[in-house]
Amino acid sequence: MNTIALIPLFPLLSATLLIMSAGRMPRHIAATIGAGSVGLSAICVALLARDFLADGQVLELTLWTWMSVGDFAPRIAFYIDGLTIVMMSVITGVGFLIHLYSIEFMWEDESICRYFTYMNLFVAAMLLLVMADNLLLLYLGWEGVGVCSYLLVGFWYKDPANGAAARKAFIVTRIGDTAMALGLFLLLTELGTLDIQPMMIAANSQWQTGDALPVLATALLLGGAVGKSAQLPLHTWLPDAMAGPTPVSALIHAATMVTAGVYLIARTYGLFLLAPPTMEAVAWIGLATLLIAGFTALAQNDIKRILAYSTISQIGYMFLALGVGAFASGIFHLMTHAFFKALLFLAAGAVIHCLHHEHNIFRMGGLRTRLPIVFLSFFIGSAALAALPFTSGFYSKDAILLSAWALEDIGPWLWAGGLLGALLTSIYSFRLVFIVFFGEAKTEPDRQPGWKMAGPLLLLCLLSLVGGWFALPLAGVFPAAAEHTVNHAVEWISIGTPLLGLLLAYLMFLGGQLSVDKMVASSGARALRDFWFSGWRIDQLYDVLWVTPYKKISYWMRNEPVDAIYNSIVAANQWAHHRLLVLQNGELRWYATTMVVGLILLLAVMLRNAP
Amino acid sequence: MDGLMVPMEHVLVIAGLLFICGLFGLMLRRNIIFMLMSLEVMLNSAALAFIAAGAHWGQADGQIIFMLILTVAAAEVAVGLGLVLQIQRRFKTLDMDQAHRLRG
């Protein structure tokens, strides 16, 4: 039982140690503590998972009562079921590999101690988020990972652009978090508890499916999930968040934190099942996001931005899965995505690391022979991302598409959209592979990745390949999905689509039979490409809609016009005071005279009023 | 009834004139000694009016008030002269237009 409490404690302790050293710890000690603590957590999780897989016993552990206000007494308590085990394994397992990789990647950085502090704090907060037994503790972890994300995006804070990216990430997610906080208030007042399991039971007994209250509550929770998981319309922060170090992008902005929204919806699925309109909204948001992000990824030229948009797009698939009620498929895709997207980011990081911090894919090329391990990793990662048969992404994405197909009414539309997204995914992943690793070399790498980089890459390669064969212990967590018979033609289409994408990418970017330059020759096509490159101009739209008006209002408000009313009262008093001050001049004769004049006036008044 | 040798109105006019003399003296004079003297004149004019009224109605009240005014005037002069001495020492002048420190 005690190992459960140790799991988040290790990284938390390590972060505390590193904070107290105030950055003066020698880098090899800081790196050992930073990566080792997450490794210890991973071992604990492995032990826990072994016990869980043996007996399937749901574990609950109450540490203490957090606070007690009237009837409201949230506890620091953990709830460990199959879903939590999956999430914890991903966080500590992938997290440990990324920490190991970071040691080499960040070795020459002067702030490596600060880096591991933030990373460990992040892992602790993320573990708290997934292990929490009540929504308030979950919210603590939720905000904790938000802060760590802010700190790590702005890690190289000396460049003001990075600071701006960090603020953007923080503020945009804060919009969603505010909605989520309102959702928590609503749930607490309506259901009287925030403990997740009793809450879902209470909701089922108090509310009917389709009532207004569950729809409102889940819509507010969905707001939080949309912000954190970078879905439309709050997705604009994630591409900018690539300003952080690449391992950070791998851990936070691909594998774990951005999937917290998916976890939240899966965790509170009981509420969402009571609100079919919200479920449908989740599916449509997922579909819209995966298509828009997919098109955007096609036109980017920064290696990390392509991966960022691809992350947004893949989380869109998870939302699609949640929206059609295939919770287990969504979580399955979450796990496989964590493997192959962490792999892709780490491989991209290795390319950037070996190529003097080059981000533009058009200045890379021919790296296949020069960085063979990285090429292998990137190729496997892209294959899994594109869902080529027998990679992990294939199984999870296929499950999602088939669940979408099986849904009545809107199902085929969602399926068709998802299929188009799969085609796009395949094209942009292999565009990346062909441009970066084939063709002529434009920049020569000046070093090879060492074992601390290559080891995690190879392990993640293995996970990306075989991850699809893991049977997740989710049987008891979610309601059993209805068995549906699937048309074999549908299956063949979803298998064939990524291959078609691969072929198209080959023809366009390697074979040269379809020239992109010719395609964008016309002005309309070029405008379309610019439109995609700018991310569908959504950033500009928000600038016009929100940022510029906000700055204008701030500019008007800089002199505090509301205070002017009160300040004018003060000014009037001061003015009168100065006028009256003249009367008090210390001249005895003046006093006497004014007294006499006053007396005469008084007398006059009295005599006038006398009968 | 009237115990006065002269008409009441004459006495009141004299008292009024005396009061106005004192008042103008107070307002126009700059020397603190003269201001105090003007005050005395005003007090005495009021006392005169009381005496006249007391004689007019044959009541002792007027004389009692006169005694009171006399006492008050004596006390006032005692305190006033003390202050005058202090003013002379501090400011080396008795001109009240110069003997003040407020910068209004």
From TrEMBL, chain B:
One Gene Ontology term from the biological process aspect of the record: ATP synthesis coupled electron transport
UniProt-annotated location(s): Cell membrane; Membrane
EC number: 7.1.1.-
Transmembrane intervals: 12-29, 41-58, 64-85
Annotated InterPro entries: NADH_UbQ_OxRdtase_chain4L/K, NUOK/Mnh_C1-like
Gene3D superfamilies: 1.10.287.3510
Chief location: membrane
One function term, GO molecular function aspect: quinone binding
Protein name, per record: NADH-quinone oxidoreductase subunit K
Lineage: Bacteria, environmental samples
Name of the encoding gene: nuoK
